[in-house]
Specification:
InterPro entries: Lipid/polyisoprenoid-bd_YceI (IPR007372), TTHA0802/YceI-like_sf (IPR036761). This protein is mostly beta strands and 171 residues long. It has a single domain, classed as Lipid/polyisoprenoid-binding, YceI-like (Lipocalin, Beta Barrel). It contains one helix and eleven strands; from the N terminus they run E-E-E-E-E-E-H-E-E-E-E-E. Helix content is 5%, strand content 55%.
Length: 171
């Protein structure tokens, strides 16, 4: 049984939403975790239950709890925040699936490079006027021009986890 979500406009509640990233480094011995502290978004649910929208991350807001590393991640070696301050995910289609799942497809843009991205999200909460989605997806940073890998220290894919709470916009 799928969860019904009201039609109309929805706004991301940034205070109750998180987008985090983790990646193995030091030849797979250390996992670096970071959280984007500035995230915005909105969407629209159509009468057929499908949705579309946009999620925007301030690339400079990535916090890994290590100032020197964060400065390097903001540099041209990685996110190049001076030239590309935003990371966006444009949801082209979010279609209710079985149970509490939502099949999401869209365009992820990092460093001005856009690539198609699809994943399955889960509705983890749905009350009058609010809905919370949880998702985990993997991203190949090299596809977005982030090939820096001194001495082969960074291997594999980055994992992005998101918990996104939306509130229904009032007219």
């Amino acid at each position: 049984m799928s969860v019904a979500v009201e039609t109309g406009l929805w706004q991301l509640d940034a205070a109750l939403s998180t987008v985090a990233v983790r990646h193995k480094t030091m030849w797979g011995m250390v996992t670096v975790n970071g959280t984007f502290t500035s995230v915005t978004g909105d969407g629209e649910v159509d009468a057929d239950g499908t949705a579309r929208g946009t999620l925007t991350l301030d690339a400079a807001s990535l916090d890994t709890k290590h100032a020197k590393r964060d400065k390097h991640l903001r540099s041209a070696d990685f996110f190049d925040v001076d030239r590309h301050p935003d990371i966006t995910f444009a949801v082209r289609s979010a279609v209710p699936g079985a149970g509490d799942t939502v099949d999401v497809s869209g365009q992820l843009t990092v460093r001005g490079i856009s690539r198609p991205q699809s994943f399955t999200a889960r509705i983890t909460g749905s009350e009058a006027g609010t809905v919370t989605l949880a998702a985990e997806l993997t991203v190949d940073r090299a596809e977005f021009g982030m090939g820096w890998n001194q001495l082969g220290m960074m291997r594999g894919l980055a994992t992005v986890t998101a918990t996104l709470r939306f509130t229904r916009a009032t007219a």
